[in-house]
Amino acid sequence: MKLRSLVSLTLAAAMSVGVAFAQAPAPFNVKIIGFNDYHGNLESPGVFGVNALVPTASRPAVGGAEYMAAYVARMKATNPLNVVVGAGDFIGATPLISALFFDEPAIETLNKIGLEFNAVGNHEFDKGSAELLRLQNGGCKITNGLPDPNSCKGFGSSVPGYFDGAGFRWLSANVVENATGRTLLPPYGIKTFNGVKVAFIGMTLKGTPNIVTPTGVAGLTFRDEAATVNALVPRLRAQGIESIVVLVHQGGFQNTQTGVPNQPITSDINGCTGDLRNANGTDSDLRAIVKQLDNAVDLVISGHTHAAYNCSVSTVDVRGTTLANAVSTPRPTGIPNRIGRLIPVTSSSAFGRVLTEIDVAINPVTRNITSVIVKNVLVDRTDAAINLAITADPTVKNIVLAYSAAVSPLANQVIATITAPMSNTANTAGEMPAGDLIADAQLLATQPAGVGGAQFAFMNAGGVRNPGFTQGAAYPYDLTYGNAFQVQPFGNSLVTMTLTAQQIKDVLEQQFANCLGQGTNNRIMQISNGLTYVWDNSGTCGTRIKSVTFTPTDLVINPALPTITAPAVNIVFDGMVQPVGPFRVTVNNFMATGGDNFFTFTGGVNVLGGAQDIDALVSYLASFKAPAAPYDPSNAALSKPRITRLN
Question: What pTM does this model have?
């Protein structure tokens, strides 16, 4: 009798388990839409191709806030469970249409696009933490005790004459206020889907203080990225959260060395050649972070390098299980975390050219993300490639048109005529045509004795912004203030200082990776007319600079035709510092305070402040406005090349 009861109970239990299995809730899908490095590009930044093999003439016009909004809406329409997130640098280094109005236009358009969570990037700190908090919380910019007339236009806010602030939440998990010990902004955001919480941890690169003017990060500490995430995992799990996405403003590049003879380099927006390793095989900064992450992290959305990549595995569950609906062609590999599991890592170029569409499956019982399928999508303003009409969002379009009209009187002022494009793409030695021009402008602005007595100028390459001077335009070209501002959008001021010959040698050696405090990448500065140098790529730290020659040149009399005023001076000859100098040198305030790891400049003496960089550039270019002769970047008097590379 007991046995029969036991059998009955066992059968009942088995049936109960069977019912439970039959009723187990199925995984559900959530759509994550990500992008990075918007940089206030309300208007289209130009043309862009899905890979480097697409001829420039065949690349479609892309981006623009109204088209970004339309693409986001179309993606959202396929799944009501969705979220829009960012990986930083959505403000700062912006075109005039946003910068003139203190980047309020960038925030207002991002609100309409539907952004919900955004990691802070280094450019979020360009104007300091107080200004970042104003943009988060709203209110007018106060200048000299009064609301600034360029603030609170309110074209995209709730009422004219007011600025609502960000409708999304900036996240700063690794940015800590020294005074309070708390993060400047929340470390993470949480959104709930079908009762399951998904966490988004947001942060910027720990090296932000090295690439932002010190006043912008005063009172803040930037902690290690991976350590910050890993420390938050137990905190999130204590809240029942198992689905974790990292939004990090740090990045890498697709490896341009395929290692396969005659194999073309595609740099496809959905590619991941080299798994984000550097060309020499070392880990990119981002790959090094991912390799340290806790296994709880399911997805990394990145930025900073303005590259597009899709390092994911569509055919394999991120937890290791093959998917039933696997696509026929495997995606590129993910990046291994600290236990070797492959993590999807994405980036969407910059300036609103690409959106990352991510479909994740979530197990409602375990609350884990069980699969991640990623696709980078070109924000094609015509979408002709797939024969599917895309209509600009009318509300966002009206905001853009309103700010365009407000900025146009200044932006459309013709300031000079140029005879040829001046790219911000460096040659093999590191010299840029646009960089030469900017350095010359800064020398002209500080050469007179009363404003600095400068003998030559250095310009950081990263400060020569995209897209260069009117690339792709018809020439001769009437250069506008808006064109110039695109290249010099930071509002840095000029600083002239005295350096010894040894300091000049040191700062030039400091351009190279891992030398005298430099980071892991070369940072070749741009130099003004009158200075030339030779560097040896086969050398080691301290031995690369072989010669530096200064030829006193007067730019003040006629910038188009500089005059030599004295014999050349060897500052460095055959690698040896010569007993000459000291010299008066101009840089921007970012470099003067050690930006880009050029710490040698902090030892300069007799420091004198000067004009803003954009004002110096406009003033210099004014000498090339009709009826004067246009600026010709090939003019022999400009003494190019200024930088020579050996080996």
Answer: 0.84
